[in-house]
Amino acid sequence: MVDVAIIGAGPAGLSAGLYASRMGLKSVIFEKLTPGGQITLSSEIENYPGVCDVKSGLELMQCWPNQAQKFGCEIVSHEVKSITKENDIFQIALDDTLQQAKAVIVATGASPKRAGFDNEEKFLGKGISTCAVCDGFFYRNQEVAVIGGGDTALEEALYLSSIASKVYLIHRRDKFRAAPATVNRVLQNPKIEILYNSVVQEAYGEDFVEGIKVNKAGELVDLKLPGVFVFVGNTKNTQILKNGDEFICKMCDDGSVCVDLNMNTSLQGLFAVGDIRSQAKKQVVCAAADGAVAALEAVRYLDK
Ligand SMILES: Cc1cc2nc3c(=O)[nH]c(=O)nc-3n(C[C@H](O)[C@H](O)[C@H](O)COP(=O)(O)OP(=O)(O)OC[C@H]3O[C@@H](n4cnc5c(N)ncnc54)[C@H](O)[C@@H]3O)c2cc1C
């Protein structure tokens, strides 16, 4: 049995593993893919403090697993299927075995939903983004497109209008779902052009996006631009917290895991960190900070 099991080796999980093992806890991280998390999809990251040269997400994350392993944290390549708690001990179900832990830090992240056009996956991180704060700056004084019609899409379109020369807001319906005040700000913004009843069909380019083809109420529109931001919702990876139809801890209305400032969930000894937790800022630096906070809190929990 380990002291702490961490599920997910993105920035939140790897930071939790580093802190937990360095504090002397016997720690293991389970990761279903390659360690690094979503940021490894991004070709550039320039807002991680202290890393001044622009690096790809993959480069940024390269040494994180080694740093955690250096202090004894084990990283196991395995998908976790479910977590339950019996008599103060957590049972972590893998495909065919059960692992036991005294505390669990869930760091399974979130997956942005795809809009579903051709080449969307191919250009992700190469002109197609799901994060305006992260990637908006790369398109300074250039034209970009935003896809979506909810609050996030409109707020991000407003944010991008302060950086880009022009923002095409592409929405499949003839009305927005966002808050009326946000809609008004968008309508009054001279740098935002709205394409209602429009659906992106494909992105094209060589290595990076060079443009998109949009079906605008039956008419084909070709927009030549290097940046496309997709905001059609995201799915938090909370499946492993389900026991039958019920979650093992309190969930918030937006589908995130409710936590307090120390990353405690409503179930003692279970912590949630990074993009999966309530009010997450969805940034690498924030996820890493969450991981550290949860590991320190796990030490306190186990001391009790
Ligand atoms: C294209 C792109 C560009 C971005 N650019 C930036 C940027 O410039 N700056 C910035 O700060 N942020 C950026 N972000 C956001 C940033 O990547 C996330 O906020 C951050 O990665 C969240 O970290 P996390 O550890 O919570 O989750 P994730 O990074 O999502 O990691 C979760 C990990 O858990 C694993 N996992 C999930 N389920 C299971 C399971 N059942 N069993 C085992 N393992 C599991 C996943 O495989 C994954 O490795 C970007 C995101 C994307 C997609």
Could you walk me through the main structural features you see in this protein, from its secondary elements to its overall organization?
This protein has 304 residues and is of the alpha/beta class. The protein has 2 domains: 2-111 and 234-303, FAD/NAD(P)-binding domain, CATH 3.50.50.60; 114-230, 3-Layer(bba) Sandwich (FAD/NAD(P)-binding domain). It contains 7 helices and 19 strands. It has helices spanning 11-22, 57-61, 64-70, 132-135, 151-161, 180-187, 284-303, and strands spanning 2-7, 27-31, 74-77, 82-86, 89-93, 98-106, 110-112, 128-129, 143-147, 166-170, 192-195, 198-204, 211-216, 219-223, 227-230, 234-236, 242-243, 246-247, 270-272. The strands form 5 sheets. Strands 1, 2, 3, 4, 5, 6 and 19 form a 7-stranded mixed sheet that branches. The longest helix has 20 residues, at 284-303. The protein is elongated, with a radius of gyration of 21 Å. The mean pLDDT is 95.
Report a brief summary of the structure.
With 304 residues, the protein is of the alpha/beta class. Helix content is 22%, strand content 28%.
